[in-house]
């Protein structure tokens, strides 16, 4: 083989080595998702009558929403979008969802089980959670800082946010940053852009 051929092959090998190192460094470098705070402690009952707490989700990346089953405004959109997220990560047992009702008087475990069935919920780590009303309202507003409450003027009698919280495997609330470098805090559960961002960041956290 001619000398020039050896040089050519060596150059290709060198380029391949550089590309491989770069690819690995990009894959394993720390992501830019901001740690906001620890997830508040909670314990509620799911659609199967099982006690589920924040500790049940340790080791998993999960999404938290506050909703109610009889909501006819934003909740159906939020639930539908979470089904999309579920389908993206179906089969991954390191992923989960916590859907917490703000209407526990109506949303019993049995009712939530039917609601989950209607939605097409199939991921074993998607829990629809219910419990004491005051406890849940305190958890939403003072634990997660996601607005929720009774509102006689609102359709269905409750007003609440359409935002999702993203939690990492260690129980930290995480978020991406906006173009100014500020954390967005929560993910828009109503627009596709917010869902796309959520799915991208779930993937990042699953790789940690």
Automatic annotation (TrEMBL):
Gene3D superfamilies: Glutaredoxin. The chain crosses the membrane at residues 6-24. SUPFAM superfamilies: Thioredoxin-like (SSF52833). Keywords: Copper, Membrane, Transmembrane, Transmembrane helix. The keyword Transmembrane helix applies. Residues 33-200 form the Thioredoxin domain. This is SCO family protein. It comes from Flavobacterium difficile.
């Amino acid at each position: 083989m001619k000398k020039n051929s050896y040089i050519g092959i060596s150059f290709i090998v060198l380029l391949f080595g550089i590309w491989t190192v770069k690819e690995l460094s990009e894959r394993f470098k720390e992501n830019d998702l901001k740690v906001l705070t620890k997830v508040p402690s909670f314990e509620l009952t799911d659609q199967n009558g099982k006690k589920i707490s924040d500790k049940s989700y340790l080791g998993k990346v999960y999404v938290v929403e506050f909703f109610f089953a009889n909501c006819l405004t934003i909740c159906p959109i939020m639930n539908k979008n979470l089904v999309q997220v579920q389908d993206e990560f179906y089969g991954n047992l390191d992923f989960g969802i916590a859907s917490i009702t703000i209407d526990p008087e109506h949303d019993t475990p049995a009712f939530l089980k039917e609601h989950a069935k209607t939605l097409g919920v199939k991921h074993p780590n998607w829990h629809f959670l219910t419990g004491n009303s005051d406890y849940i309202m305190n958890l939403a507003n003072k634990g997660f800082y996601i607005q929720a409450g009774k509102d006689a003027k609102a359709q269905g009698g409750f007003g609440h946010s359409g935002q999702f919280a993203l939690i990492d495997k260690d129980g930290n609330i995480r978020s991406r940053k906006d173009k100014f470098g500020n954390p967005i805090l929560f993910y828009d559960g109503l627009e596709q852009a917010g869902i796309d961002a959520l799915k991208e960041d779930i993937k990042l956290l699953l790789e940690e």
